[in-house]
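Notebook entry, structure prediction.
Reason for the run: the old model in the group folder had no record of what sequence produced it. Starting over properly, with the input documented here first.
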Amino acid sequence: MPIMAAWTNGDFTVGGMFNVWAPSGDYDANQLANPGLGYWTFEPMLAFRWLSTKIGTEFTVFSGVDFNTVNTTSDYTSGDIFHVDATLAQHLPLFGGVAGAGAEAASGLGSAFFYAGTRALLVTNWSVHSASARELITDLFRRQRADPALTRGEALRQAMMALLDGPGAVDGSGRTAYSYAHPLFWAPYSVIGDGGGT
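New structure, fully documented this time:
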């Protein structure tokens, strides 16, 4: 349930948003995945955007804080999260105005790496969970070091499956707090470029 307000002056926009995320789904320790959200999240956000109507360049930055309540099903608190996200994009002039083509910024950055000699990039399609990302990336490189014939794509696939099948987030007493089986944790990763290389 978002509540939004914005003010625009020429190419500049400042806005605020307040999101409320309600508990959804259910939790079963015996299920492979529990995609539901078992707690409330309250998220105030502030955004700034510059979109040039003349050249089509956009720079947007927004920040927010996620205030999470206790998960009453598992008696676990996820903690609060502060985040800052930014976009730099070049929009195309279409139909007498500016239309979005934000992927060009990402592909332009990727092209810069490839021109510099990089053979492959490991990218994510959305923001990732820090602990699970560290586990997956460490496992990926460990697998490639152990088997030099293993391709980048196969090493990523194996690391993703290991994360999905693994114990998940473990608390101080060694008990699983939540599983990494949900695609949120393992699905955002892709190898672009020479994924079949070693």
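Summary: Residues 120-198 form one domain.
The old model has been moved to the deprecated folder.
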